Amino acid sequence: MTDFAMRYGEQVTRARRDGRPVVALESTIISHGLPHPDNLRVAREIEQTVRDNGAVPATIGMIGGELVVGLDDDQIEHLALAEGVAKLSVRDLAVAAARRADGATTVAATSAVAAAAEIGVFATGGLGGVHREASVTFDESADLVTLARTPIVVVCAGVKSILDVGATLERLETLGVAVAGYGTKRFPGFFITDGGFDVDWQLDSPEQVADVIRARADQGVGAGALILANPLPADEQLDPALHDRTLAEGLELLADRHVTGKAVTPFLLSHFHESTAGQSLAVNVRIILRNAALAARIAVATTAAPAPVGFAAPA
Q1: Which of 18, 83, 108, 201 lies at a CB distance of 3.0 to 4.6 Å from 146, suitable for a disulfide?
Q2: Measured distance CA(90)–CA(112) in Å, rounded
Q3: Cα(32)–Cα(13) distance, rounded to whole angstroms?
Q4: Calpha distance 87→251 (Å, rounded)
């Protein structure tokens, strides 16, 4: 007999038992998003930020084919240091488990697993989306379709600015995914504060976000995610001129080296890190720590709400 069911880490098991707020965290930022040794340090800082803001972190990943909701520190270190860690979207989870793989979950996979585990809030850096030249390549992140059918709040800094931000927002609208700015009606551009597009809705507090979660549960109509776009303050963003120049250079390199598919985002993020002498890395870290703190406050507000709230972990 073989059991491929996902397993809960000890801290998440206790939180579920006690009815404490939980925040889901992805693991691709550990294995593919940040260079070593920053990846391990930052992964620990993210979890501590969630704790400091009153919630329990649940970093999701796969160890030897076992899908774990709430990796412990040794498992996080393993994903940070191991060679050949697979980048897992939703479609990869069963195959990777059957092959006993080590894997890190993307935004799509983390969202789907978190929702299945009845965790309602997820913090990440930037979403995937529609790639540039997608009208030719049809290259579009699985994040978008997954979020259309996954009831979760995703706290992010918008769409990664290496993508086609406008096209991504159009696809999210078509797919029925709600988008709101946190304290703004301008959609952030990941490394930069303003991605150049408006959003229809603005939410200004964790309690307002908790109200959205409660309304969606009470209505029982929408099944998609809420994208909560949390921009960096302007004085903490990457210099926009440096950003635009680095992006243009990176896109030329992509074409010259024929980089495609899953390799595109890690390649461009690495290019940003090298070309900005680490400035983009520092910005990336600020993004994820701010989002982790906000997600924790939302989870706390959701758990503390006086009326029944959807997506709360059962005791």
Answers
A1: 108
A2: 7
A3: 27
A4: 22
The answer to whether the beta carbons of residues 104 and 32 sit under 8 Å apart is: yes
**What does each of the 315 residues of the chain score in pLDDT, given as a tens digit?**
457 889 999 999 999 999 999 999 999 989 887 888 889 999 999 999 999 999 999 999 999 999 999 999 999 999 999 999 999 999 999 999 999 999 999 999 999 999 999 999 999 999 988 877 767 667 788 899 999 999 999 999 999 888 889 999 999 999 999 999 999 999 999 999 999 999 999 999 999 999 999 999 999 887 899 999 999 999 999 999 999 999 999 989 988 998 877 678 778 888 988 999 989 999 999 999 999 999 999 999 999 755 444 434 433
Tell me the two tokens of residue 119. Answer: 């965790």
Which residue among 26, 87, 140, 262 is the active-site one? Answer: 26
Q: Is 87 one of the catalytic residues?
A: no
Catalytic residue selected from 47, 87, 140, 160: 160
What is the C-alpha to C-alpha distance for residues 193 and 187, in angstroms, rounded to an integer?
Answer: 8
Q: Residue 43: what are its φ and ψ, rounded to 5°?
A: -55, -40
Contacts of 115 (CB under 8 A, 6+ apart): 150, 151, 152, 311
**Catalytic annotation present for 26:** yes
**Token couple for 253:** 């390199």
Region for residue 309 given its phi and psi (left: phi exceeds 0; alpha: psi -120 to 50; beta: otherwise): beta
